[in-house]
């Protein structure tokens, strides 16, 4: 029988505790790794030649700060410390390097958690100025929002309980319960290509992970970059299986018609890829989940 390492305790409850960086590993195990603030780059806040012609930036300047959409439950990517309210992770660093280029230091960026299914609406309604949270660029979404980037390339993958032997790829999901976030590309791909899987949708991946650990579902599917973070946090419970079965280029979502903002963010990304900050940020965040930094991808300045 499987040893229940996390009885009744939900991962949703565990993850924030881990995010709090309290050294609360299980007895006898080293404390889990977390982003190490000391190793993070600092981004020069650009003050010369302010960008003109972006309604989004004009509104942010009038307000005094940027509002950036993000995730809060994705280890090493976008995570909120419940004790301090601080966000950290690779996506958060990307948001900060962009903010600095746009003239806003870290103390002038307010992060707001927005779930996968609500990203387009949040950008359309002006709830956020831009969005950085494992957001795949695709043609459907481009009808609703603009995308700077990509700044990272992920791929859809599968995560199961450590003792699972029968699920080794998406072809094994027939009749099994697989969980993903509503409105996400991985959710849509299972729906379209693996109709025999019993698809379960939640707002967040951490809810899926809770359900996996408590045997309510048999697998969680989303990007490898997200899953590897959960596995790194609870390696005794979880594992990834099979090979990635999609390409998920991560973009920064912007209001659809603010081309000035989109191009400025592309400039910001290129600058930080070229000066080494991108790699430094990766190494201090997502790199801690065990995958070395790839080459930064080529930016697509589509017309
Ligand atoms: N990258 C995928 C997407 O944008 C999955 C991750 C997420 O839901 O944020 O839909």
Automatic annotation (TrEMBL):
<feature type="domain" description="Solute-binding protein family 3/N-terminal">
    <location>
        <begin position="65"/>
        <end position="289"/>
    </location>
</feature>
<dbReference type="InterPro" id="IPR018313">
    <property type="entry name" value="SBP_3_CS"/>
</dbReference>
<feature type="signal peptide">
    <location>
        <begin position="1"/>
        <end position="19"/>
    </location>
</feature>
<comment type="similarity">
    <text>Belongs to the bacterial solute-binding protein 3 family.</text>
</comment>
<dbReference type="GO" id="GO:0030288">
    <property type="term" value="C:outer membrane-bounded periplasmic space"/>
</dbReference>
<keyword id="KW-0813">Transport</keyword>
<dbReference type="Pfam" id="PF00497">
    <property type="entry name" value="SBP_bac_3"/>
</dbReference>
<dbReference type="GO" id="GO:0005576">
    <property type="term" value="C:extracellular region"/>
</dbReference>
<feature type="domain" description="Ionotropic glutamate receptor C-terminal">
    <location>
        <begin position="65"/>
        <end position="280"/>
    </location>
</feature>
<dbReference type="GO" id="GO:0016020">
    <property type="term" value="C:membrane"/>
</dbReference>
<dbReference type="InterPro" id="IPR051455">
    <property type="entry name" value="Bact_solute-bind_prot3"/>
</dbReference>
<dbReference type="GO" id="GO:0015276">
    <property type="term" value="F:ligand-gated monoatomic ion channel activity"/>
</dbReference>
<dbReference type="InterPro" id="IPR001638">
    <property type="entry name" value="Solute-binding_3/MltF_N"/>
</dbReference>
<dbReference type="GO" id="GO:0006865">
    <property type="term" value="P:amino acid transport"/>
</dbReference>
<dbReference type="InterPro" id="IPR001320">
    <property type="entry name" value="Iontro_rcpt_C"/>
</dbReference>
<keyword id="KW-0732">Signal</keyword>
<protein>
    <submittedName>
        <fullName>ABC transporter substrate-binding protein</fullName>
    </submittedName>
</protein>
């Amino acid at each position: 029988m499987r040893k229940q390492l996390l009885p009744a305790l939900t991962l949703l409850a565990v993850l924030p505790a881990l995010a709090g960086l309290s050294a609360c590993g299980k007895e006898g195990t080293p404390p889990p790794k977390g982003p190490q603030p000391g190793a993070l780059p600092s981004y020069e806040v650009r003050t010369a030649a302010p960008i003109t012609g972006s309604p989004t930036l004009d509104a942010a300047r009038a307000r005094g700060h940027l509002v950036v959409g993000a995730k809060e439950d994705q280890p090493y990517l976008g995570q909120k410390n419940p004790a301090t309210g601080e966000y950290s992770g690779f996506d958060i660093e990307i948001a900060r390097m962009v903010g600095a280029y746009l003239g806003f230091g870290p103390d002038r960026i307010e992060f707001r958690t927005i779930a996968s299914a609500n990203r387009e609406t949040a950008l359309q309604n002006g709830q956020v100025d831009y969005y950085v949270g494992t957001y795949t660029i695709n043609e459907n979404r481009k009808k609703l929002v603009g995308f700077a980037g990509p700044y990272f390339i992920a791929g859809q993958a599968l995560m199961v309980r450590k003792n699972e032997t029968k699920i080794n790829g998406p072809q094994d999901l027939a009749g099994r319960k697989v969980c993903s976030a509503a409105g996400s590309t991985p959710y849509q791909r299972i729906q379209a290509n693996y109709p025999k899987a019993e698809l379960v949708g939640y707002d967040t991946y951490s809810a899926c992970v809770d359900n996996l650990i408590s045997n309510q579902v048999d697998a969680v599917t989303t990007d490898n970059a997200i899953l590897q973070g959960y596995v790194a946090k609870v390696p005794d419970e979880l594992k990834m299986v099979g090979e990635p079965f999609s390409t998920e280029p991560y973009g920064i979502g912007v209001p659809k018609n603010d081309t000035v903002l989109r191009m400025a963010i592309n400039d910001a990304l290129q600058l930080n890829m070229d000066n080494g900050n991108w790699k430094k940020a990766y190494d201090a965040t997502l790199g801690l989940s065990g995958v070395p930094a790839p080459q930064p991808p080529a930016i697509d300045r589509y017309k």
